[in-house]
Amino acid sequence: MADPKQQQRDAFRAADPAGGPLTTDQGVVVDHTDDSLRAGDRGPTLMEDFHFREKITRFDHERIPERVVHARGAGAYGYFEPYASCAEFTKAAFLQDPSVRTPVFVRFSTVQGPRGSADTVRDVRGFATKFYTSEGNYDLVGNNFPVFFIQDGIKFPDFVHAVKPEPHNEIPTGASAHDTLWDFVSLQPETLHTIMWLMSDRAIPRSYRMMQGFGVHTFRFVNAEGRGTFVKFHWKPKLGVHSLVWDEAQETQGRDPDFNRRDLWDTIEAGDFPEWELGVQLVPEEDEHSFDFDLLDATKIIPEELVPVRPIGRMVLDRNPDNFFAETEQVAFHTANVVPGIDFTNDPLLQARNFSYLDTQLIRLGGPNFAQIPINRPVAPVRTNQRDGYHQGKIHRGTNYSPNSLGGGCPAVATGDPAAYRHLMERVDGAKVRRRSPSFDDHYTQPALFWHSMADWEKRHIVDAFRFELGKVAAKEVRARTVEQLALVDHELATAVAEGIGVTPPQQRADTPRPTPSPALSIANNQADTPSVSTRQIAVLVCDGVDAGQASAVRTALADQGAVVEFIAPQDGTVTAADGTDTEVDRALPTVASVLYDAVLLPPGALDSGDPASDGAARRFVQDAYRHGKAIGALGSAVEVLAELLPAEVWETSGDSRPVTDRSIVTCGTANADFTAAFTEAVAAHRDWSRPPLTR
């Protein structure tokens, strides 16, 4: 019997006016839309490519005034300072003197959802930094993934259209778990490497402060002698890389949709300034072709085992904006905003971004004068012949052309000035083609590299993510086709995903890549050099009859180390402690949840308020913390109650002390220095992924 849904799709295609060949807006038939026109396979994109320009321009102008992508954001001011002069490989002034602090503004963002979507969705995160240097503004426009979904910018509208809410019903918001995205992925294998990152815990960061950043593309450094060096940029958070798990990420969307935005704002207001180290991977020009992938391919990384990351400076964010719209919303980033000493490569995705960003700002910010908005103004002097246009804020005098004599020749071109920007000279030749270089063809080795570099718990989370995402896909053929693509990455991965989504597991393939793992890709190997509880959010469950003395002692010890500790009770106001004193409550249990905290502490009497509803909510709070791998501390009578809530195999019975086998669950009869030290260590470790499943 025919599949009714397939019949419906066939009928739709037959009636669809788009069923004929693809054309431009002028009706010109197009025979290729996957590669922009370039000079040679690896050459720069040509401006005469009217199809590429029309496609990108139309895409850039689709939404007014919200950003088409990266609409949901948060920002902060700070500074950058180099560790030492980088003159050996770049003449960029802001990378020379360790005593000079360059002001910065950083905007973090999600990609798919609109401004009103939630922070903790599964998505790529933008990590864009504007350096207000003495030579002009430099924008390092990156993401929290080192790779992107596509190799050529002409495909960007296709990818974003696929990942955005489906056009017929505008569903889902801020999510990639739907048919059109996975249809695109299953037909476009170059997406697979970034898809692996998207299905990993990297896509649900605990905090912007605990998130890596990457420049994605290969750029060039250029030194004073004009020698070029290929460079990739890395931001490494001082606090280490930490993520949520999918279950808590989803609940957090309802409990606090501003979770990441609030975290960044609150920690800066509290004086706990987030910090990142800027590192670079440097490749001499003569080594450009020494890898088994192409440096111009934005879907590839350079494994750190091949080219180590060299730390060159640090960035600190120490001030929140005064007005979200004027600053965070109006900030305009552009990959082509570079300064002397930093140049481009012929990466076809980067070439497209260098066109697209400026084009987008023109429509989003109402004209060409957006650089005059305070957040976008450089600290370097501006002298141009640009005039008029929407929102012109300057009153110009004199001439507006060059060359001139009536204006004294000003502003004059800086002929011979070593401070002037000069593009690196390189030979460019080749046939005018719409074709991708064969060096871009391997779409499976690096996704396999990512998979084989993961810890076991990371692999479990990736499989669970694929099952969730593809389980939301209604088209069975898309599910099956995606599994076929995953089978080209790894048989174990593809089989585990297939078994969870009702697809026949694939046959083992002999040509599946088996790369040597890169430990640097695992979150497990990207922790802080010195783990700390600073800025960690810790919930202390209290109620009438609680031992407030022990609770306060541990709270004070943790707060002294920079933790944010809150007393959570069944209701706001105060609770009456066991000694008859009143203890102030920070938050009421119905207004919060375990997913908003990094750890939970149970003082004696914490889970025994006498109110079944309140005790039930408190016990669920604890069990959620357990399921999400968080540190749990229990004292006195709370230890026995905790033992009833958790799996029996967590505990070892030994007399009356019941020592726990899980180091992240810390128990003791009374609060003492040993307990506090052990609990502090457990919180600093962030999560424990080795726990038995919760069955109660």
TrEMBL record:
Cofactor: heme
Keywords (A to Z) from UniProt: Heme, Hydrogen peroxide, Iron, Metal-binding, Oxidoreductase, Peroxidase
Lyase as UniProt keyword: no
Domain Catalase core stretches: 23-410
Keyword Ligase listed: no
Enzyme class, broadest EC rank: oxidoreductase
Substrates-to-products reaction catalysed: 2 H2O2 = O2 + 2 H2O
EC number(s) reported in the record: 1.11.1.6
Residue numbers spanned by region Disordered: 1-28, 504-529
Chain ranges passing through the membrane: none
Biased composition (Basic and acidic residues): 1-13
Role description: Decomposes hydrogen peroxide into water and oxygen; serves to protect cells from the toxic effects of hydrogen peroxide.
Protein family: Belongs to the catalase family. HPII subfamily.
Protein name (database record): Catalase
Organism: Streptomyces stramineus
